[in-house]
Amino acid sequence: MSSHSKRILTGVVLVLVLGYLIFWATPLELALGVLAMSGMGLWEFLSLFWPGRQQLGLKAAGMVLAVPVVLHGFTGVSALGSLLFCLWAINAFFIAQLVRGREIEWQSAQIVSLGLIYIPAALQFLVGLEAVEILLVLLSAFVTDILAFYAGSLWGKRKLIPAVSPKKTWMGAAGGLTGCLVVSLALGFGFGAAAWPVWIGVGIVLNIAAQVGDFFISALKRRQGVKDSGRLLPGHGGFLDRFDSVLLVLPAYILIQTFWPLF
């Protein structure tokens, strides 16, 4: 099977799984699905710094601490309270290792803390959103990525930020922006409560967030000398290769709808 065929097949499976979580899953099932995604993303993120069996203790600690961050809504603890607890738990782990004579660099403990903020703390917002809101977030990220890829492949010549991602072009960025605007306007006209200029603004902001999120993981992979974040998704690479945009689109959407309710 060609790489492109694998990419399409994997995409179909993702659509089916995400479709179930969005439209048919119970709140608990959605939360557990988000927890699974958080675990996959966090493992890949930490493995960029510690490949293979390196720092398994810290990786395991990060995976365990993702649970209260994502499932805070079922414990009665706020998201911020759960996250602060996790950050101090990591610091306690750091201190305990020092007491046992197993020195762990301070920076290593904080990489786990960053991973918890970057992935589970972002994805947990999905649990509290309506189906149409989740659609807006996911489609904005995915359509931006897909149309940027194809527009850049077909017509792209001038590089966007070659030092970070040599293949991304201005034409690809324009294609991604166009797709994101279409998604925003379509869902806004169909289900939203705001005027069309607002939805244009939403599309622009979410597109910028998607592209910055993509550039962040590209820069990190380039810094660490790897091509893909993992091999979990055939034809796409790893979880972060596909969901990197979502991780910034989500908080961007939450910020927008906090000040300007859209649905």
Write the topology of this structure.
Elements: H1 3-23, H2 27-49, H3 56-70, H4 79-99, H5 106-118, H6 120-123, H7 131-155, H8 170-191, H9 196-224, H10 239-243, H11 246-259
Helix pairs in contact: 2-3, 2-5, 3-4, 3-5, 4-5, 7-8, 7-9, 7-11, 8-9, 9-11
Give a written overview of the molecule:
The protein has helices spanning 3-23, 27-49, 56-70, 79-99, 106-118, 120-123, 131-155, 170-191, 196-224, 239-243, 246-259. It has eleven helices and no strands. The longest helix is centred in the last third of the chain and has 29 residues, at 196-224. It is globular. It folds into two domains: 1-128, no CATH class; 130-263, no CATH class. The model has no long low-confidence stretch (mean pLDDT 89). With 263 residues, it is an all-alpha fold. Helix 2 (27-49) packs antiparallel against helix 5 (106-118) and helix 7 (131-155) packs antiparallel against helix 8. The chain is 73% helix and 0% strand.
C-alpha Rg (nearest Å)? 19 Å
Envelope shape: globular
- Based on secondary structure, the structural category is mainly alpha
Helix count equals 11
Helical proportion, percent range: over 70%
Number of beta strands: 0
The biggest sheet amounts to: none
Intertermini distance: 42 Å
Percent strand: under 5%
The low-confidence runs, each spanning 5 or more residues with pLDDT under 50, are none
Number of structural units classed as domains = 2
In brief:
This protein has 263 residues and is mainly α. It has helices at 3-23, 27-49, 56-70, 79-99, 106-118, 120-123, 131-155, 170-191, 196-224, 239-243, 246-259. The protein folds into 2 domains: 1-128, no CATH class; 130-263, no CATH class.
